[in-house]
Write a structure and sequence with these properties.
The complex is a heterotrimer. Chain A contains 6 helices and no strands. Chain A is mainly α. Chain A has one domain. Chain B contains 9 helices and no strands. In chain B, helix 2 crosses helix 6, helix 6 crosses helix 9 and helix 7 runs parallel beside helix 9. The relative contact order of chain B is 0.15. By secondary structure, chain B is an all-alpha fold. Chain C has 2 helices and no strands. By secondary structure, chain C is mainly alpha-helical. The termini of chain C are far apart. Chain C is rod-shaped and about 60 Å long. Classes of the chains: A mainly alpha, B mainly alpha, C mainly alpha. Chains in contact: A-B, A-C. Chains A and C meet through helix 2, helix 3 and helix 6 of A and helix 2 of C.
């Protein structure tokens, strides 16, 4: 993971060329785009894990979904912040109600709701199933929300706005981008495993404490 | 089965009527929320009429939320939810009936009040018809999607804020298509596609939400 | 060197975004590790006593 990041950053900041239209600012893309992709991918993973947990009641699926959520929230927040830092030089404003940014913002709220319901229900079994239902409902809504936001932005958009994802990506930019995506994925898997392990240990701890309380 | 549904719906409406306040409170909240906007953005009639559709729709979303957290809670607490389980109807249908009752008791009075607020917001006269129509076909989605949030938080003592967080992002498509339909008429473009999409969102919500809400309720009832 | 950090004037936007991304990612990683370590320690603290009756006190470390 560290190696992928090192190579990715080296390529992104040093060897990759500046874009002819966006100049050096295109370098933000190498962290913005992976963050945004991972934000969506993580939500998909949570939804799939929730489906598995509802159908097969597999406890590891619950743990995976729960553990992935804060990581996904972090990716979503980073996509918003880097998007804003990229938007300032490109659009002249810190925030533009562009369809993509707006959808990512909504995704951020979906993550918040998902995490909130985990925290609001004390009983872990109930929380996991309620959260799973919510994740699936949210997942069904993601394409609808995305479509509606795009619809809304075409109604309000002045035509001449540079879009954040240039029309075509040159090969010299694609390689560093892919390396960074790989690094983000490796990061996600590593942290996900740590957090799942922690959740497992937390449950074990609960059992131990319960045993001790009953024994005493 | 249709008879049972009818009885249940009448029972729900009767309860809402007897508790009385919920419809009146929703309308009062709706009126006050809309009135705050001119006070906030200033009384210039051009600006008000330009944002009128959006303000009214947003206020509708918030007012619909108000009574949502109690949708199943009262029944859950006094145990009548378990008794509803004894009725020979699938829980999904019961949920749908309760969501429909919420719509009639909360959204319908708001819709009736909306023209007055459209006048206060200086909405163009040609927008009134499409506003009423968009609210009529759009707001059922709020009650049905809201039922999911209400069911998920039914066992929580202070679920109200959580319901808003869970449900408001899901209201966005309804908001967008509803406002776009009114704005389309006000700016003399076609409202048709917006209304179709608005109706589609409602239809989808009515078809799917009862299943999600019912499974959440089963979970809470253990 | 100055030119490199300046990045045609975009450095003001590029560097903070890289810093924020890595601070957040590393922070989340450290938080996850710490959380795991704390839990494992708590289990260790409980385990020897809990196992004392059955297996003896040393069995805690794998």
């Amino acid at each position: 993971m560290a190696a992928a990041f090192a190579v990715g950053i080296y390529m992104a900041l040093i060897t990759s060329p500046a874009d002819f239209k966006q100049g050096e600012s295109v370098r933000i893309m190498y962290i913005h785009v992976p963050s945004a992709w991972m934000a969506l991918l993580t939500y998909t993973i949570i939804a799939v894990a929730s489906g598995v947990s509802i159908i097969w009641r597999h406890p590891l699926a619950d743990l995976a979904a729960k553990s992935a959520a804060p990581v996904g929230l972090a990716f979503t927040g980073l996509a918003l912040i880097t998007g804003s830092l990229w938007g300032k030089p490109m659009w002249g404003d810190w925030w533009v109600w562009d369809a993509r940014l707006t959808s990512v913002l909504v995704l951020f709220f979906l993550y918040l709701g998902y995490i909130a319901i985990w925290q609001a229900i004390e009983d872990q079994n109930q929380a996991s199933r309620a959260a799973a239902i919510l994740a699936l409902v949210g997942f069904v809504n993601v394409p609808i929300i995305k479509f509606s936001v795009e619809w809304w932005s075409t109604l309000h958009q002045p035509a001449s706005v540079i879009r954040l994802d240039g029309p075509t990506i040159d090969g010299s930019m694609l390689v560093p981008l892919l390396v960074m995506v790989l690094a983000f994925k490796a990061y996600f898997i590593t942290v996900l495993l740590w957090r799942m392990k922690a959740e497992l240990v937390a449950r074990k701890l609960q059992v131990l404490r319960l045993k001790k309380a009953q024994g005493a | 089965m249709r008879r049972t549904v009818g009885i249940l719906l009448r029972h729900e409406l009767h309860l809402a009527w007897r508790q009385g306040s919920s419809s009146g409170m929703a309308v009062a909240f709706f009126v006050i929320a809309v009135v705050l906007f001119p006070l906030g953005v200033g009384p210039e009639l051009n600006i008000l009429s330009r944002v009128s559709a959006g303000v009214i729709w947003v206020a509708v979303l918030l007012s619909a939320l108000l009574s949502l957290d109690r949708l199943f809670q009262a029944d859950f607490e006094d145990g009548s939810l378990d008794q509803l389980g004894l009725i020979p109807l699938p829980l999904e249908l019961i949920v749908a009936v309760k969501a429909a009752a919420h719509w009639i008791a909360t959204c319908l009075p708001i819709i009736v009040a909306s023209p007055v607020l459209a006048i206060l917001m200086n909405m163009g006269g040609e927008g009134f018809g499409v506003m009423l129509f968009s609210l009529l076909i759009g707001t059922p989605a709020l009650s049905f999607i809201g039922a999911i949030g209400a069911a998920l938080t039914v066992a929580m003592r202070r679920g109200g804020v959580l319901v808003s967080i869970l449900v408001l992002p899901l209201f966005i498509p309804t908001l967008i298509f509803g406002v776009s339909a009114i704005d389309a008429v006000l700016t003399q473009t076609v409202a048709g596609p917006n209304l179709l999409l608005l109706g589609a969102v409602t239809a989808l919500a009515m078809a799917l939400a009862p299943f999600a809400a019912a499974s959440a309720l089963r979970l809470a009832m253990g | 060197m100055v030119e490199f950090f300046n990045m045609d004037g975009y450095g003001v936007f590029i560097w903070p975004s890289y810093v924020i991304v890595f601070v957040v990612l590393i922070g989340l990683g450290i938080q996850s590790r710490k959380w795991l370590a704390n839990l494992e320690k708590a289990v260790q603290d409980l385990q020897p006593e809990g196992d004392a009756e059955s297996e003896g006190p040393q069995i805690g470390e794998p």
